[in-house]
Specification:
Pfam families: Rhodanese, Rhodanese_C, UPF0176_N
CATH architecture of the largest domain: 2-Layer Sandwich
Helix content: 10-25%
EC number: 1.14.-.-
Strand content: 15-25%
Oligomer: single chain
Mean pLDDT: 91
CATH class of the largest domain: Alpha Beta
Low-confidence stretches: 321-334
GO biological process, one term: tRNA modification
Radius of gyration: 21 Å
Number of helices: 8
Number of domains: 3
CATH topology of the largest domain: Alpha-Beta Plaits
InterPro entries: Rhodanese-like_dom, Rhodanese-like_dom_sf, Rhodanese_C, TrhO, TRHO_N
Protein name: tRNA uridine(34) hydroxylase
């Protein structure tokens, strides 16, 4: 068993004072030595964090003890170390940016648990619809699924016409962890689709609980791992190297910061071309050293996990106390 855990979760539950709760949540993550990204919004909470097993268990317990978040369902994976380099806890208008005029607490698609989804997905009256970005489904997707050429969920209204002819079918939406589908399925219902379902917990939960059958390729994730295996039954590769066309599920960010495209690149081309997706990218004067992973965390001088809180509030953090201590010019101790 690996010593670290990666937690993926979300919940639509009103937060009356997101700014205040953001600070509380940031201090909680600092106390538990967690790294990752957490979004706090008036509509709820969305996060992916990594840490030692005991720290992640304490984090889960702390959130479940809050009545607002008692129903959070965590997707838990193992890791050899932190899958993030930094800690960011931010307040945003939505926990997943969509701009869709829907409220999933009022209406959303029927949730299907992984085993239910597995039984229903091959029904001839069912259509699977991928609600992720184009670079995500390029590296992995469910067999036979409809995909949209969109950069983000805000573009969904521009693509609904592509499935208008399927309104008499059972539509099952899916995404990485389920959060996009809460709003995407609600939007489809608002557009006149009658039989709308969603894969509860997304691709990640399906892989953990149902073996990932018929998910071709790999699942894109938003941390240092970039992609993960989910199909443990009949895995295949659906993507090819951006440069040479060899089948590969190995996704990278182009080493050129000016480009930074998400592309699949085989190991051979990665080594030969320094992790760049085109020859033109090789000439970028800011070209990043390619270390074989193709993942480039943003660099900052003097960063510590507490820095996001310090720069925001200008206050010293006392992790042993529930409240902040007086502001100080001393170096923060965490």
């Amino acid at each position: 068993m690996k010593p670290y855990r990666v937690l993926l979760y979300y919940i639509y539950s009103p937060i009356e004072n997101p700014d205040q709760y953001r600070d509380e949540h940031h201090r909680l993550c600092l106390r538990l030595n967690l790294l990752g990204r957490v979004i706090v919004a008036p509509e709820g909470l969305n996060g992916t964090v990594s840490g030692l097993t005991a720290d992640c268990e304490a984090y889960k317990a702390a959130l479940h003890a809050d009545p607002r978040f008692a129903d959070i369902e965590f997707k838990v994976d193992e890791a050899d170390g932190h899958t993030f380099q930094k800690l960011h806890v931010r307040v945003k208008p939505e926990i997943v940016h969509s701009d869709l005029p829907v409220d999933p607490r009022r209406q959303t698609g029927i949730h299907l648990e992984p085993e239910e989804f597995q039984q229903l997905k091959n029904d001839p009256d069912v259509v699977l619809v991928d609600m992720r970005s184009n670079y995500e489904h390029a590296v992995g997707r469910f067999r036979g699924a409809v995909t949209f050429d969109m950069e983000n969920l805000r573009e969904l209204p521009e693509h609904v016409h592509e499935i208008e002819h399927l309104k008499d079918k059972k539509i099952i939406t899916y995404c990485t962890g389920g959060i996009k589908c809460e709003k995407a399925s609600a939007y489809l219902l608002s557009q006149g689709f009658q039989n709308v379902y969603q894969l509860h917990g997304g691709i990640i939960k399906y892989g953990m609980e149902a073996g990932g059958t018929d998910f071709d390729g790999q699942c894109y994730v938003f941390d240092n791992r970039v992609t993960v295996d989910v199909n443990h039954v009949n895995p295949t590769t659906v993507s090819v190297c951006y440069r040479c066309g060899t089948p590969t599920s190995r996704m990278i960010n182009c080493a050129s910061p000016a480009c930074n495209n998400h592309v699949t690149l085989c190991e051979s081309c990665g080594d030969e071309h320094g992790g760049t997706c085109t020859d033109a990218c090789k000439t970028d004067p800011e070209l990043r050293p390619y270390d074989g992973t193709g993942y480039y965390g943003k660099q900052s001088v003097g960063y510590t996990p507490a820095q996001g809180y310090i720069s925001r509030r200008g206050q010293k953090i006392d992790l042993s106390a529930p409240r902040l201590v007086a502001a100080s010019t001393d170096t923060p101790s965490v």
